[in-house]
Amino acid sequence: MDEKVRQNLVDAGCSEGFIDDYAAAGSGSEQLCRLRQHRKELLCRIHDGQRQLDCLDYLIYQVKRGKSCI
Questions:
Q1: Residues 15-42: pLDDT tens digits?
Q2: CB atoms closer than 10 angstroms to residue 9
Q3: CA-closest candidate to residue 19, choices 36, 28, 6, 31
Q4: Residue 10: which H helix or E strand, with range?
Q5: What pTM, to 2 d.p., does this model score?
Q6: How large is the angle between the packed helices 16-24 and 28-64, nearest 10 degrees?
């Protein structure tokens, strides 16, 4: 595998196992499928993080208004 591709995968947060699987993929379409799946997982993490931020923002808002939900 080209070192630039490997570094890009590392920078994208791919595990060594993922990188090995990607390198072992037989075709470009199989590699593309793996990349799309990893992207989907990253996007889910972002959405989960955004939901958590929204919950904290709501709690901060409630505490500022003196209406703590706790």
A1: 999 999 999 998 899 999 999 999 999 9
A2: 20
A3: 6
A4: helix 3-11
A5: 0.76
A6: 150
- State how far the Cα of 54 lies from the Cα of 24, in Å rounded to an integer: 40
Q: What are phi and psi of 69, to 5 degrees?
A: -85, 0
Which residues lie closer than 8 Å to 9 by C-beta, 6 or more apart?
18, 19, 22
* CA pair distance 38, 44, nearest whole angstrom: 10
Rg of the chain, C-alpha, whole Å: 19
Residues 6+ apart with CB under 8 A from 62: 68, 69
Q: Is the CB of residue 8 less than 8 Å from the CB of residue 30? A: no
